[in-house]
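ARCHIVE RECORD
Type: protein–small molecule complex
Small molecule: adenosine-5'-diphosphate
Source of inputs: curated submission
Record status: active
Notes field left blank by submitter.
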Amino acid sequence: MLNIVLFGPPGAGKGTQSERLIERYGLIHLSTGDIFRYHLKNETELGKLARTFMDQGHLVPDEVTINMLKDEVLKQTDPKGFIFDGFPRTNPQAHALDTLLKELNTSITVMLGLEVEEEELKARLTNRALSSGRADDTDPEIIANRIAVYNRETAPVKEFYAAQNKYIAIDGIGTIDSITERLYSAIDSKK
Ligand code: ADP
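STRUCTURE (tokenized, with ligand):
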């Protein structure tokens, strides 16, 4: 199996690039943000719980997120691999993912980190608010909060994969196509 973690701060382009990678490699795309938004929209119990955290730009608690992700992974029959987008976002999530994949006799192949500086991220998110309809994109204070949460809780997850020699940094500035090419080369070097 080919299992990729697509990593990077809010607004780095994970969603856009994921769509291209799943097409080329035949992977299943699991975006925890998208799954949570599905639950929000359908007003499920999980959605009601997640909303309070998401609207403020906080993380949904690990236990809730990990159980949801596990269900999604185990639901697949005979997958060729996964692209994890927006997960793991904390060290406990990274450990839980390792354990889960071990049970399936597989592991993470590579973590690709899209690197984009903060001013550019803020500009992209503010711009995205015009079309996304996402409550967490409209308020500059909430955007700042998400970036702070990223720096504090999520950025350290990179070290977990770097220690296993699995982290590759990708320059996230440039045209969408040129960034896709960088990702393809990085993946092909690890396959
Ligand atoms: P972005 O990368 O644009 O910040 P996402 O769509 O990945 O946004 O996530 C939106 C929100 O969903 C997060 O701010 C958080 O509240 C929640 N969320 C998504 N993934 C996770 C996760 N792995 N752990 C905890 N909360 C998460």
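CURATOR ANNOTATION: Residues 10, 32-33, 36, 53-54, 57-60, 65, 86-87, 89, 93, 136, 146 surround adenosine-5'-diphosphate (CB under 6 Å).
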